[in-house]
Structures are given as structure tokens and as C-alpha cells.
Design goal:
Blueprint (H helix, E strand, L loop, with lengths): L9 H8 L2 H5 L6 E4 L13 E4 L1 H12 L9 H5 L2 H8 L1 H4 L4 H14 L6 H7 L2 H15 L4
Antiparallel strand pairs: 1-2
Helix pairs in contact: 1-9
Length: 145
């Protein structure tokens, strides 16, 4: 993946930072697993994740603002020490660059296509909130004054 520090404009950063107040709200609900209710014939459907409108808007904003990287071997990177540190250590994530955040968001969002519910788990675990918190900090750091 080739990215430089100019990849993310203030507009790109603010597009995701704006979600912080909503995600911090105690009333925020990222979605739920569905399909576990019995069908009329008594069988059960395979569970699947249903994201809330707010969570879906966040994912779309991530795509629209270059936070999901297309030319990047995210499956390989996801098992790297860097990826694990960013995901598991809040102090490391608190110092992450926009490029590192983009890699991490790419992993979280893309892996949901192969493991339904992974993105919902990232919301429920607080990972997405920590990521958006770091993006908000970057937004404030990049403003003059």
C-alpha cells in the first residue's frame, strides 16, 4: 500500500470524526445479529448481522473518504504485530497515523464480508469508538491554532 501524509484532507478526517458524539452516546446501538428466530416451519435461519443506519453511514463514509484502502493486502497485514498492537493496545492506537488507521479500518470493514458480524463485534468491543476517537484527535491536531 502506498499512501502519504497528504492522502487525508481535513475533510476526509472530519467525515469520520463527526461520528464520535453519536458513538459515545449511551443510546448508540450499532445493530444486532438477526435470523435466530424460528421460521414458521420450525427451522432456524443462519444468523446474520444487521447494522444500524448510523453504523452503515459510518462504513459508507469510510469508503467515500479513502479510509478503506483498495490496493492493500489486508489479510496478511491483519496478523502483523503492528495490526495487533493497534487493535489491542489503546496507547498504540492513541498515537496512530491516518495511514495506520486506514489499514485497521480496512481490515475491520473488509473482514466482515468473510465473517459476518465481525464489524458488529468491532463496534460492540469499543474498537470502532477508539478508532473514531483517534480520528477526532487527528482532526483537532490538524486544525491551525
Amino acid at each position: 500500500m502506498t499512501m502519504d501524509s497528504g492522502t487525508f484532507s481535513q475533510e476526509n478526517i472530519d467525515a469520520l470524526a463527526r461520528f464520535l458524539p453519536e458513538f459515545e452516546s449511551p443510546h448508540f446501538d450499532p445493530g444486532r445479529m438477526s435470523g435466530t428466530e424460528p421460521n414458521p416451519d420450525g427451522s432456524f435461519s443462519v444468523p446474520y448481522a444487521v447494522l444500524s443506519d448510523q453504523a452503515t453511514s459510518f462504513v459508507q463514509a469510510a469508503y467515500d473518504n479513502n479510509w478503506v484502502v483498495g490496493s492493500f493486502d489486508w489479510p496478511s497485514w491483519s496478523g502483523s504485530e503492528e495490526a495487533e498492537s493497534l487493535r489491542d493496545d489503546e496507547s498504540v492506537l492513541a498515537k496512530a497515523t491516518p495511514e495506520q488507521i486506514a489499514r485497521l479500518l480496512t481490515v475491520v470493514i473488509r473482514q466482515d464480508r468473510f465473517c459476518d458480524g465481525a464489524l458488529l463485534d468491532a463496534f460492540n468491543s469499543g474498537l470502532i469508538l477508539r478508532i473514531v476517537g483517534r480520528i477526532d484527535a487527528l482532526s483537532k491536531e490538524s486544525r491551525p491554532g
